[in-house]
């Protein structure tokens, strides 16, 4: 893969210009990689992904406006063939799991060597899944399916509403749910209202009782 036409087209999304431009400078000399665009936040990343159709997006997680997890969801919903490589300061199991659920194919901690980054981009582009060495040992545990829950009582709920209902049953507030699922607070409020309406519940306490009776809310 040496020609410009066959090079992997990469979009870099990071709200820190020094890191964003520095990573671009490291990648651009690579004969098999072309940086086609740079985004300063998640919303811009989604827009530029539509404009440039990159093969791989190198995505920071913590960004203003739209974070990297939500940007990943939006990009993959529209262009599912795009490979997303999370590149973040946070070596955190919760963020890793959220990134995987959003559809990211890789997760590297900032500070990785240049060779490791280029290999990760190439692997994600070819359909592989990449995690930094320090995270690899925890992947199996994170991927272990949780105990089966009874959701048969709530067939009217969407998958997202069940996910939020589970967290409600676990005692999470709307703010905590928004932070944990990387959703806007308004989105959580709308989903909670929909859950109450669909379950014909009078208040949040009734929802919690019914959800726990169905086996939900188990951490």
From TrEMBL:
Matching Pfam families: GerE (PF00196), Response_reg (PF00072)
Organism of provenance: Knoellia locipacati
Taxonomic lineage from the root: Bacteria, Bacillati, Actinomycetota, Actinomycetes, Micrococcales
GO BP terms, alphabetized: phosphorelay signal transduction system; regulation of DNA-templated transcription
Record InterPro entries: CheY-like_superfamily (IPR011006), NreC/VraR/RcsB-like_REC (IPR058245), Sig_transdc_resp-reg_C-effctor (IPR016032), Sig_transdc_resp-reg_receiver (IPR001789), Tscrpt_reg_LuxR_C (IPR000792), WalR-like (IPR039420)
Entry keywords, A to Z: DNA-binding, Phosphoprotein
Top-level division of the source organism's lineage: Bacteria
Domain Response regulatory intervals: 9-125
PANTHER family hit by this protein: TWO-COMPONENT RESPONSE REGULATOR
4-aspartylphosphate found at: 60
Residue stretches spanning the membrane: none
A molecular-function term among this protein's GO annotations: DNA binding
Protein name in UniProt: DNA-binding response regulator
SMART domains reported for this sequence: HTH_LUXR, REC
Start and end residues of each HTH luxR-type domain: 150-215
């Amino acid at each position: 893969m040496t020609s410009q036409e066959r090079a992997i087209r990469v979009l870099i999304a990071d709200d820190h210009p020094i890191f964003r431009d520095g990573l671009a400078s490291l990648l651009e000399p690579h004969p098999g990689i072309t940086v086609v665009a740079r985004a300063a936040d998640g919303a811009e990343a989604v827009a530029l992904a539509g404009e440039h159709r990159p093969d791989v997006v190198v995505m920071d997680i913590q960004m203003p406006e739209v974070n990297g997890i939500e940007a990943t969801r939006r990009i993959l919903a529209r262009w599912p063939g795009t490979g997303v490589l999370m590149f973040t300061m946070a070596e955190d199991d919760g963020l890793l799991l959220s990134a995987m659920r959003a559809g990211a194919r890789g997760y590297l901690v900032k500070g990785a060597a240049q060779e490791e980054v280029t290999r990760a981009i190439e692997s994600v582009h070819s359909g592989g899944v990449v995690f930094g060495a320090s995270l690899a040992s925890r992947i199996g545990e994170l991927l272990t399916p949780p105990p089966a829950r009874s959701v048969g009582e709530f067939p009217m709920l969407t998958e997202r509403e069940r996910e939020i209902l589970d967290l409600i049953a676990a005692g999470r507030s709307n703010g905590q749910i928004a932070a944990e699922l990387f959703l806007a607070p308004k989105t959580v409020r709308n989903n909670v209202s929909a859950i109450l309406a669909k379950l014909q519940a009078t208040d949040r306490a009734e929802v919690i009782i019914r959800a726990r009776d169905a086996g939900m809310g188990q951490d």
